[in-house]
Amino acid sequence: EAQVTQNPRYLITVTGKKLTVTCSQNMNHEYMSWYRQDPGLGLRQIYYSMNVEVTDKGDVPEGYKVSRKEKRNFPLILESPSPNQTSLYFCAAGLSSYEQYFGPGTRLTVT
Amino acid sequence: GQNIDQPTEMTATEGAIVQINCTYQTSGFNGLFWYQQHAGEAPTFLSYNVLDGLEEKGRFSSFLSRSKGYSYLLLKELQMKDSASYLCAVRKAAGNKLTFGGGTRVLVKP
Asked: Is pLDDT above 80 for B9?
């Protein structure tokens, strides 16, 4: 079964404490992407990756880092989280951006 | 940049038809997508249009006019389970960056 997994699903943290949200896919897809979803703003793309070692900025990359060292994993790193990064985060994977499979989401609260 | 506009909310009756419009302005265009998202869940892919015209998939159809920067998603024979948000997204010509609209919440009433 095609699957995208994210961990953790829920996280409450404090300002400035580095965190990583993991994303893994079992479909051998080249394309992976991170989004954040906020009320009234919809889904906004943070970063995407076309393949291993290839990453590009989306619309809202500030304050985030990503890495793609292997095809199946695409972690999202917040080096110094701030309250404005409180959001619902989705990871997605696909053969391209054409048809993406989304993970279940990670709800992050930064106090 | 890209501007993508869609209505915030629509209400329709079970068994009826609803049309969700999406207009966009972009400096380059390489496809328009529709996703469905039930409350508390992840988005799921519905349709993709890159050429003008209508794409039909069962009860759902999506239309694109590139010259007008316009698309719609048509939901026929509405069912209660169709109550969800519908997200329009545009892919730019260069690369695979996707920009989403704010989403349209559809409420289906009995």
From this structure: yes
